[in-house]
Amino acid sequence: MAVGPILKGNRGQLRPVEAEDALFTLNIRNDEKLTAFIPRLGGTVEGQTAWIKKQREKEGDYFYIIENTSNEPIGTLSYYDVVGKTCELGRYISYGNAFENVEAAVLLIEHIFSLGFTRIIMNNDERNDRIIRFWTKFGAEFVAKVPMDGWTAAQYALTPDLYSKKKESIHKLIGMKG
Question: Which pTM value belongs to this model?
Fold first, then answer.
């Protein structure tokens, strides 16, 4: 099964999605304030439950719930499309504050690199300046514009070397050790 470990931080944790998270994941994915640049999900809670169950068995697809320090779900984040030592990071939607959001990304990026991955791809709607600025603060560099299904992605890539140049300042910003 493609179920990753719980990744703990100072401001919360990332835990693997469970079937019981279907309502939350469906609601957050359809929140108009958070999803202006990603497709909304149709369907039902039952359909989302079935998708989560199937996803948990799909090799190379790791879907996490971001929880705050009270263990309340505040977002989603995942990595998938694993090819060799490259993966894509996405499904990143969060109600969290800036510190919780940065820490969630740090936890997953550092986990991915600890597994020996050498490249993380982020495909973002080219109009989504906010998320593009977010990833560039981690050291991600522009690769190309990529046509997707009805939209154009600004593709960015992050390597351990690029991230290492930003890691100390990011950790300092969120009060993280290490």
Answer: 0.93
The answer to the question of residue 60 being in a domain is yes
Q: Which domain covers residue 94, as residue numbers?
A: 7-174
- Using DSSP, state whether 149 is helix, strand or coil: coil
- CB of 65 closer than 8 Å to CB of 78: no
C-alpha separations of 154 from 85, 120, 123 in Å: 21, 14, 6
Give the C-alpha separation, 35 to 110, whole Å: 25
Spatial contact of 156 and 141, defined as CB atoms under 8 Å apart: yes
- pLDDT (tens digit per residue) in 30-72: 888 887 777 667 788 999 999 899 988 888 899 999 999 999 9
